[in-house]
Design brief:
alpha+beta; globular; six-stranded antiparallel beta sheet
C-alpha cells in the first residue's frame, strides 16, 4: 500500500477547511423518524467521500438488504442501538461499533430498539447519495405509493441493488 498520486500541486497550503457544527439543523428529514446531516458530500470533498450523520428516531426503520457496485459503505454507531447486517448475520451495534462493507457487499441496518439512535455513514468514493436520500424523503413526504417497477428504477439510478 502506498500513498495515492498527489491531487494538490500548489507550492503552499491554503486555508480551505470547513466546519460543520454539531448543533446545526439537519439538511434532510426522511419521514418523521429520520434526520440526515450532510457532514461532507462527494461534491464538497472533490469526489473523495461522503459522510453523513444519520439520526434515527425511536420508530422502527431502515433499508432491506442490498449492495452497491460503485462504492464502499461504512457505519459507525454514535448513540443508541442500531442493528447492523454484514450479509451473513445481524448484530446489535452499540456506540463505538463499526461495520465496513466493500463494493458488492450485502448489508442493511435497522433501528428496532424503540429508542433514538445515531450513526455516521461513510461512502467512498464520494457518490452523489444526497439525491437518493432526497428522493426517499420526497416519496415519504408526498405519500406516493411506488410500483415494484418504479422502486426498481429508483434503486438502479442510485446504485442500490436489493437482495
Amino acid at each position: 500500500m502506498s500513498y495515492p498520486e498527489p491531487r494538490y500541486f500548489k507550492e503552499h497550503g491554503e486555508h480551505s477547511g470547513t466546519f460543520q457544527l454539531a448543533d446545526r439543523t439537519p439538511e434532510l428529514a426522511i419521514g418523521t423518524n429520520t434526520q440526515v446531516h450532510y457532514l461532507a458530500t462527494g461534491g464538497s470533498t472533490n469526489g473523495a467521500y461522503g459522510l453523513y450523520r444519520y439520526e434515527m428516531g425511536p420508530g422502527p426503520g431502515g433499508p432491506a438488504a442490498h449492495f452497491h457496485r460503485t462504492m464502499t459503505e461504512s457505519f459507525y454507531v454514535l448513540s443508541g442501538t442500531i442493528r447492523l447486517f454484514n450479509g451473513e448475520k445481524w448484530a446489535d451495534g452499540k456506540p463505538g461499533d463499526f461495520l465496513f462493507v466493500p463494493e458488492g457487499g450485502v448489508h442493511a441496518f435497522r433501528n428496532e430498539s424503540g429508542e433514538p439512535a445515531t450513526m455516521l455513514i461513510l461512502f467512498t468514493p464520494g457518490a452523489p447519495r444526497e439525491a437518493y436520500f432526497e428522493e426517499l424523503a420526497d416519496i415519504a413526504l408526498t405519500g406516493r405509493q411506488l410500483s415494484a417497477e418504479e422502486w426498481t428504477d429508483v434503486y438502479l439510478r442510485h446504485d442500490q441493488y436489493m437482495v
